[in-house]
Amino acid sequence: MRKIILVTGGCGFRGASFIKNHYKKYNKKDIIISIDKEEGQHISNEAYKKSHNLTFVEGNICNEELIKHLFDYFKITNVINFAEEKRSWKYDEMIETNSKGVEVLLECARKYWKSHTNSFIQSSTLKLYENKEETTEHTYNESKTHAEKLCRVCSEKYDINTNICRISNVFGPLHVDDFNISTNNNIMKLKVEGASTTVNDWIYIDDMCEIIGLLMESSKKNETYDICSNHHISNKVMSESIMDIVPKISNFTVNRMFTVRNETNNVPVNNTTSIEKTKKDLKWLPQNKNMFYENLTKTIIGFLR
After folding, report:
1. Three-class SS state of 121
2. Which residue has the higher pLDDT, 52 or 150?
């Protein structure tokens, strides 16, 4: 059965990657409506022009009239909400997008959906397992926690098929979570969020897309899944891997900087994650876990191009 999927944050790294992956692995006849506040670099205008089943809408998920129009006009059957704001200098937008935006989407799902085959997938974060002080990142976590609560309430009270994906750090062509990479005059600047001792779970983008695709095809309801690979790497090892790769494939030299220098208070994070539930419910195991260095090389090549 053909789906009509609303992908929010569709021009961002995760949203755009999911769209590409979906058309490779699933029903090419599915219609995808991609909404984002601005056009991104990950899917070009040409991609939208070439595909009759892919439509881009420039807009904000907090715009109730726009979201109602999309549900009504396109008869949306599935929602995958990747849209989020985490930039510290956009505090108000962070609260609005991460909380109110989810509320708007769920309200439209409640109003328009009558079938149990409809599904709503909320992209969340494994950082919710961390204990954060009163910082911008704490506010980000609070807004994502509130979004999760909205999903659970909507599922329990209105019988809407919602599921939550707590996603770990993702990397892939043109993107490495928590790593700000820029190039200038044969110098690659590597700004790393956190301390060198900070440990995160890392998952390759193709694995993330596959899990979400499997979840959308499943009959699961009101579940929370850790989208991870159980491949824990410190910022030090991750950055050193990048510093090892770059000279082998280019003439660039790498300058590295960690945003947190007091490492005595930084302990490994995200070690409470588990893929056991994902493995059991969705019959999935990470396909790219043993290809970390190879996939990181692909990622860096994307930057250098």
Report:
1. strand
2. 150
